[in-house]
Amino acid sequence: MSGCPRVPYVTAFEGEAVSYQVAFVADAEATDGVRLSYTDATAHDWMFGVLWHRQGLSRAGRPLWKLVNTARQRRCMLRLLCQVCGRSAVDGGRIWWLLPEPPGVAVDGRPFTHAPPTCRSCIPAARVWCPRLGSESYVYTVCGSEPYGVVADVYRPAAGRKVGAIRRAVEVPLEAFRLLEYAVAMQLLVKLDGLQRADL
Length: 200
Prior knowledge:
The protein is mainly beta. Helices cover 10% and strands 40% of the residues. It is built from three helices and 15 strands. Strands 4, 5, 9, 10, 12, 13 and 14 form a seven-stranded mixed beta sheet that branches.
């Protein structure tokens, strides 16, 4: 294999950054009567009861190799697309997944991850080019997946509904309604059904 590595489909780019402001707003349906919102929020800013990080989709500018694009990561998770090439990761009725370590374990004992699938044909290149992978990474197939939670920045309200301290990259299950109301989601977590180690 020669030349530069392919920029994975989920990688964020410098030109995709979008500035925004968040604030706590009154919401009669929220647990504490307030929830985090953008100052210019639209209905498209929420999914699964949580506010999502805004980011462009242009793939313009320099790739930010250590960061993922929130919208593309979520799309890969929901549509079972390869995080490297953006095509389907389903092969022979199973979904291929490549992880740097074994998946996490949810309260109900089911495995979960924030890493999107990787199609079978992209796994060898991903192992060569991704510093977190390599030949010791874990290759799995699964029979299905479902949304479990989010990786999010969780904000604390301050006086006058202003935004206070932030906890970064917190794993929040979708049933943790109060935390979701205080969060900006960066990545979707999914549970993996029928997880099996695979050999290429």
